[in-house]
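ok new one. same drill as before - structure tokens go in, u give me an amino acid for every spot. 423 of them this time. try not to just spam alanines like last time pls lmao
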């Protein structure tokens, strides 16, 4: 038994939280619980539900030089993320029974809980894949990205139909390659990638995907929406959507400094669009923040704009960046909890996670809301050893708990206890 005494919850109330550590769940919440077992004094500290990052690429199998389940989940735990959802574009891609089993064996080394998404390629085996304990179908790619898994419209429709029969959410990477601007290929500056993969390519693909989703009665989730137009199209169609920290905080104005380290799919947008995306995050339009944590080595990224791979790390800095925004009153702590925990648990069907309530799993993060620190790559735990947020300010966790087990505390890690949330 563990009692966290006098913690401030996201709504500003001060409560004691009792945890049955053997069961991994919250057993009581109150203002003056009788002390039982170990007691932690959390006076002046903020207690948050552990973040659920619904979009990570931990790179195993196939690309362990970029990241591993061990290093990626350490990064997650140190950033207050207690559940991650890994996407299928690994090597082999997670598109059938054997590839799922291979990834599941590697994921058992995780420090945090996880879901494994199944992917779609022309060679996928839906009968095998959909019988595995996958969290969702997707990231289904409507344009090529890392892993070359872009598919045609007919296969997308078929995949959505099969997933809907299984009551699975379909996560969609929405870009229409027909609307990419080929004229940008004559350029070699860092902004050329943003000019090439146009904002219109995203909004058009969101609309097309949602038309199919509505027709089939599917549960569609749009990944990494980077434009206000894409967010609005998803919302109007009744789909859910996520925004990444890099699309929320960075814009094309930052590319002179970031260079090819700022190349990702979809790319950074104009400062005006970024501000509109941030506003939709703040006002409740956007459902969740997910990182699209997509690490590559420094050597890989240090190339020309047409040769560098797309993607940036972010699982460890998501919650610290959002908490800094809350500290500055640009977001409320309630909104941060909604974006990172409550809504992801609802969208992806994780009823025991995402909230600080009696009976829920004790996935918890304790922070000092006024203890800021500068983000430095050398202090982070991702294997790729760099961050697009170098020099930014964040509020980092002191303690991260998964099912009542301390997996991170004051720079030290606990045991690798991660479990598949669907198993």
């Amino acid at each position: 038994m563990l009692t966290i005494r006098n913690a401030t919850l996201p709504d500003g109330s001060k409560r004691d939280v009792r945890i049955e550590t053997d069961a991994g769940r919250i057993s009581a919440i109150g203002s003056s619980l009788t002390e039982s077992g170990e007691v932690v004094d959390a006076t002046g500290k903020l207690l948050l539900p552990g973040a659920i990052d619904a979009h990570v690429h931990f790179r195993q199998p196939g690309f362990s030089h970029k990241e591993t389940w061990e290093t990626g989940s350490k990064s997650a735990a140190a950033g207050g993320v207690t559940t991650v959802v890994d996407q299928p574009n690994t090597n082999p891609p997670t598109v059938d029974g054997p590839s799922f089993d291979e990834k599941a064996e590697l994921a058992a080394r995780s420090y945090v809980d996880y879901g494994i998404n199944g992917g779609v390629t022309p060679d996928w085996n839906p009968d095998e894949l959909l019988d595995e304990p996958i969290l969702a179908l997707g990231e289904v790619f409507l344009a090529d990205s890392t892993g070359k898994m872009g598919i045609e419209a007919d296969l997308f429709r078929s995949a959505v139909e099969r997933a809907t029969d299984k009551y699975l959410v379909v996560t969609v990477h929405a870009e229409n390659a027909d609307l990419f601007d080929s004229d940008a290929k004559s350029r070699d500056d860092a902004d050329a990638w943003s000019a090439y993969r146009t904002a219109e390519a995203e909004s058009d693909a969101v609309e097309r995907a949602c038309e199919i989703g509505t027709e089939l009665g599917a549960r569609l989730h749009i990944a990494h929406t980077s434009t206000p137009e894409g967010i609005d199209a998803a919302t109007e169609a009744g789909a859910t959507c996520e925004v990444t920290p890099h699309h929320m905080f960075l814009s094309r104005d930052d590319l002179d400094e970031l260079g090819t380290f700022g190349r990702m799919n979809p790319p950074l947008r104009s400062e005006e669009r970024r501000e509109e995306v941030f506003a939709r995050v703040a006002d409740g339009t956007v459902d969740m923040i997910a990182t699209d944590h997509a690490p590559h080595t420094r050597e890989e990224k240090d190339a020309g704009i047409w040769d560098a791979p797309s993607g940036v790390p972010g699982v460890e800095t998501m919650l610290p960046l959002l908490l800094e925004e809350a500290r500055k009153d640009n977001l409320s702590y309630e909104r941060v909890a909604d974006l990172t925990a409550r809504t992801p648990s609802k969208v992806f069907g994780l009823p025991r996670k995402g909230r600080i309530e009696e009976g829920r799993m004790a996935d918890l993060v304790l922070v000092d809301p006024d203890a800021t620190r500068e983000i430095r790559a050398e202090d982070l735990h991702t294997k790729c050893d760099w961050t697009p947020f170098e020099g930014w300010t964040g509020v980092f966790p002191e303690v991260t708990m998964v099912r009542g087990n301390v997996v991170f505390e004051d720079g030290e890690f606990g045991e690798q206890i991660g479990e598949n949330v669907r198993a």
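The chain has a mean pLDDT of 96. and btw The chain has two domains: 2-47+357-369+394-413, 50-347.
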